[in-house]
Specification:
By secondary structure, the chain is of the alpha/beta class. The protein has helices at about 1-35, 55-70, 85-95, 110-120, 150-165, 180-195, 215-225, 240-250, 265-275, 285-300; strands at about 45-50, 75, 100-105, 125-130, 140-145, 165-175, 200, 205-210, 230-235, 260, 280, 310, 315, 320, 325, 330-335. The strands form three sheets. A seven-stranded mixed β-sheet has the order 2-1-3-4-5-15-14, sandwiched between helices. Strands 6, 7, 8, 9, 10, 11 and 16 form a seven-stranded mixed β-sheet that branches. The longest helix has about 35 residues, at about 1-35. This is ABC transporter substrate-binding protein.
């Protein structure tokens, strides 16, 4: 009997040891499988826009959702209801508590997000930015739609072309004053004007429109009243060109004031049709959303992008020498002739 009990105890001990090994191996294997996208636990990627509910970020969301389905990852697309950094911080805090694998954010104010993004990184979450740069010391990748310098200069050149003159008074509308990408484009546009078109006069500093078409509309009416010799408006942020064009259309000033800006083709079409908006210059935001998720998934699997890499649904990307700045491609000019060819 004693021999039997001793043998039984030995068997129990061996089984316990084996169970511990299997449990430890499963835990390790599960984590590895998640990062490779092959385990039961899918990679979880959170994409945070500046705000939800405006056409540009609605179009980006479509690309994010599509990428999640096609690439086999869980995606969360969430952001504040206004272009407000404090609201964005709360959104990211919530995502940290959900233990997502990647957070890709388009900051309303990069400096305001630094503490919460550092917290995310310290928790082992991969931090990226997209659409707008965040603190570059914290992000693994910075996903840009276009070369910012070239884009801003292109917008300025387009305004001069549509004005049909290399001198005159102009104004600049923007979204939020702290939006890094908008400020970079505006600075590049100003450089282009200063270097090549000294006859152009900026009547006032850039005017904030809070990412709202109605605000841009009212600000444009104010500009037209205050500066009767105004010849051109550059509008940055997707609602701003629409509001400016709405005011020009209402006042019947299509032949007097040229308007160019960063707007979506579908929203721009009515204003492009009658010339109240001369050209909308942007890219395809659904592709930007898709690209962001594709690169986030690769990072979670331990893979870095390469210069010239061909991304499905997007095309060849450019990787800068810093190893973290990704350029999706050149901008697109949406005009009266081609706007209806696009569905965003």
């Amino acid at each position: 009997m004693k021999k039997f009990l001793g043998l039984l105890a030995s068997v129990v001990l061996v089984i316990s040891m084996l169970a511990g090994c299997v449990s430890q191996e499963s835990a390790t294997g599960g984590s590895k499988g998640k990062k490779e996208g092959s385990g039961n636990d899918k990679i979880k990627i959170a994409v945070v826009p500046k705000l939800i509910g405006i056409p540009y970020f609605n179009a980006s969301e479509k690309g994010v959702i599509e990428a999640g389905k096609e690439l086999g990852v869980d995606v969360i697309y969430t952001g504040p209801t206004e272009a407000d950094a404090a609201q964005q911080v709360k959104v990211i805090e919530d995502l940290i508590s959900q233990n997502v694998d990647v957070i890709a954010v388009a900051p309303n104010d990069a400096a305001s997000l630094t503490p919460v993004l550092k917290k995310a990184k310290d928790k082992g979450i991969i931090v990226m930015d997209w659409d707008t740069p965040a603190d570059q010391s914290l992000v693994e990748l910075s996903v840009h739609q276009i070369d910012d310098e070239a884009y801003g200069r292109h917008i300025a050149k387009s305004l001069i072309e549509k004005m049909g003159a290399e001198e005159g008074e102009i104004a600049i509308l923007t979204g939020g004053l702290s939006a890094a990408n908008l400020n970079t484009w505006i600075d590049a546009a100003k450089k282009e004007l200063a270097e090549k078109y000294p006859g152009i006069k900026l009547v006032t500093d850039k005017i904030a429109t809070d990412e709202k078409q109605q605000v841009a509309y009212q600000k444009t009416l104010d500009l037209v009243k205050s500066y009767p010799n105004l010849k051109g408006i550059m509008a940055f942020s997707t609602p701003a060109p629409l509001g400016a064009a709405q005011a020009i259309q209402e006042k019947g000033l299509q032949d007097k004031i040229a308007v160019v800006g960063t707007a979506l083709p579908t929203d721009s079409a009515p204003y492009l049709e009658d010339g109240s908006l001369d050209v909308a210059i942007l890219w395809e935001p659904d592709k930007l959303g898709f690209l962001t998720v594709a690169l986030a998934k690769a990072l979670a699997e331990g893979k870095k992008p390469e210069n010239g890499q061909d991304i499905a649904k997007v095309g060849k990307i450019e990787l800068w020498e810093d190893g973290k700045t990704v350029i999706m491609g050149p901008p697109t000019d949406f005009t009266k002739e081609n706007a209806k060819d696009f569905n965003f």
